[in-house]
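User: Second chain of the day. Same drill as before.
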Amino acid sequence: MNRLANISPRNDSLVSRIRRMRISDQGTCLNIQKLTFPDAQVYTDFAKELRKNHSIYLVTYFDLCSSQVAVKIKSSGYLCECSTNANNISGFIGSWRVADQIQIIDFIVTPEFRKLRIGWLLLASLIKEAELIESKLITLEVRASNNPAINLYKNFGFKICGSRKNYYSNKTEDAILMNLDLTS
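Assistant: Same format as last time:
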């Protein structure tokens, strides 16, 4: 079943090319993580994650060098991912394959490129990967205050299935548990 047939990005100029994360991307992805979560006590060891057979990490990136991207987007609305320069990475999604399930563990879009459907591209690509390996369920945790992410997940058919009280490092914010059943 093509779960994404009725879901499409709002911006038709978005080119939907994406690739697996490479070791050479780890510095850029770590910088994105630190920029997004400056107070985190622990960051992902991408080199270790990429060596695991059960890890799936995908990145999006631009055709233009990062200094030209914002100008190009403003002038034409055109956005493309490039497979040649780790500095042009605009976001990434990471997951673990456990039995017949996928657990999303990392999902970040660089702040200046949010609201350009990069998150849509990453999530759609991970769902396609999950379907290819015949996963039955995708699970995740999301901050209760992260309404843009919660809405993105709901648009893809994720359902709220629980919560974890005081889950995040500051112990003041709950996690919302969501899952997407790939068998229905």
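The chain has one domain: 19-181.

User: Great, on to the next one.
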